[in-house]
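Per-residue structure
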Amino acid sequence: MFTHMAKHLKFHALAPQPYSIKQESDKSRI
């Protein structure tokens, strides 16, 4: 379980910032 979380966090850390920001925007719009 912890390993899965670490992978998830690492994926987000490596993801392009604009993509992450867009995801947040979509979340707040809903």
Summary: The two ends are 29 Å apart (CA to CA). Helices lie at 2-14, 17-29. The chain is about 85% helix and 0% strand.
